């Protein structure tokens, strides 16, 4: 099964420095334009997705709806694809958070009061991968959020969890992941070996 991983586009809250977590979020005009451009890239790459599976948070649903309209695809909503819950920090600005206290915790266990740690999100990613194995699709678009997508990427590539922090999904990046090979769109190519699995990584940010 091939997966195309997409992070939703920019939100109005993101521009204002507001932490969303499980809050819905409103796509900005730039975020909507990114969705249109992403659909065009997918068309040009001839990837032929059969379905869109999206987080049920509004910013991801709205992003998926634009792509679905452009590609003529059905959208299935999946709560497992939600962003990491930020608990009591949700709806607050970055400046309102005591980051010094937060960063005292081990990195993978960091969480805001009432929220999720990175390990918690990793467990959701594992659960999602098990769930989609039963689906009949050859190629699916996954629309989700930065932290979840990073955790999903390291699970698919069988990398240490710490490698998730090397991914940057803050701007929409398009990935296509396939059993033992990972291919994304890029301006440069890097080949390496992970155990017995070889992958090619091509990365290009959408304009």
How would you characterize the overall build of this protein?
The chain is α/β, with parallel strands linked by helices and 207 residues long. The chain has one domain: 3-Layer(aba) Sandwich (Rossmann fold). It is 31% helix and 20% strand. It is built from 6 helices and 8 strands, in the order βααβαβααβαββββ. It has helices at residues 12-15, 29-44, 58-71, 99-102, 118-132, 146-156, and strands spanning 2-7, 51-54, 75-77, 139-144, 175-178, 181-184, 188-194, 197-203. The strands form 2 sheets. The protein has a 6-stranded mixed beta sheet, with helices on both faces. A two-stranded antiparallel ribbon has the order 7-8. Helix 3 (58-71) links the parallel strand 2 and strand 3. Helix 2 (29-44) packs across helix 3 and helix 5 crosses helix 6 (146-156). The longest helix is centred in the N-terminal third of the chain and has 16 residues, at 29-44. The radius of gyration is 17 Å and the shape is globular. 33% of the residues are buried. The model is unreliable at 176-207 (pLDDT under 50).
């Amino acid at each position: 099964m091939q997966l195309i991983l997409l992070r939703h586009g920019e939100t109005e809250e993101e521009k204002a420095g507001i932490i969303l977590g499980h809050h819905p979020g409103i796509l900005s005009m730039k975020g909507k334009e990114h969705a249109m451009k992403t659909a065009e890239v997918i068309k040009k790459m001839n990837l032929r997705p059969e379905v869109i599976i999206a987080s049920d948070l509004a910013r991801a649903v709205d992003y998926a709806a634009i792509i679905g309209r452009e590609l003529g695809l059905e959208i299935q909503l999946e709560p497992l694809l939600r962003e990491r819950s930020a608990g009591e920090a949700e709806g607050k600005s970055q400046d309102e958070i005591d980051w010094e206290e937060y960063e005292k915790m081990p990195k993978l266990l960091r969480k805001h009061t009432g929220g999720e740690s990175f390990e918690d999100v990793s467990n959701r990613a594992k659960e999602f991968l098990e769930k989609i194995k039963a689906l009949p699709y050859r190629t699916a678009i996954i629309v989700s959020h930065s932290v979840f997508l990073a955790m999903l990427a390291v699970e698919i590539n069988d990398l240490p969890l710490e490698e998730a922090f090397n991914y940057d999904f803050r701007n929409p990046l398009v990935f296509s992941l396939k059993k033992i090979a990972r291919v994304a769109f890029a301006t440069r190519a890097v080949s390496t070996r992970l155990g017995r699995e070889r992958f090619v990584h091509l990365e290009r940010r959408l304009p």
